Amino acid sequence: MVIAKSKSRLDIILIMAQVCVALGLAFLLRTTGRAPRLFMLWPIASGLVASLGLYFVLYRQGQKKLVFVSLLVLLYSGLILLVYVTPLTIRVVWPLFVIASGIAIIPAGIMRYKRLRPVFFVPGSAFLILGTLFCIFSFGFSSMSFRSFITIWWPAFILAGGLFLFMIYLINKSMYKHRIKEIDSAGL
Hints:
The protein has helices at about 1-30, 40-60, 65-85, 90-115, 120-140, 145-175, 175-185. By secondary structure, the protein is mainly α. The N and C termini lie far apart (about 55 Å). The mean pLDDT is about 85.
């Protein structure tokens, strides 16, 4: 009874802390003139809901499949807020949304299955790699155009795909090492 009461008090403290951070950020953006219109603050509300959802999933035995959605909404909310309060446009920062998707997929798979599974690791890593590649061109870090880059470096994608498949093979082999020994000993 005492433990449950202290847990509920901690929950209330955490919720109040998140609400205070969200309100403080909203008021700070309004008073500094970074968010002159009230509608520009909606990503803070969605980020607050997502962070509360993450808390309940991680610490209150919520449905593990909601980790991906909560992380994705939280990351997307931060990126949309970034677009609203900085001179950056969505046309420039769109690769960050690809990276955010990759960041959300990998931990969601680990939380759901208690281990790293290729079905989550491969697409998550692909999103991270592609997002990073697109960032180089979107933010203007390269003097070469994306079209010229693809024209010259397309064989590197085949090479990277092969190395990636080799890495998946090694991960699967280490995960199922005991099963391989059983099959070898059975003579199958």
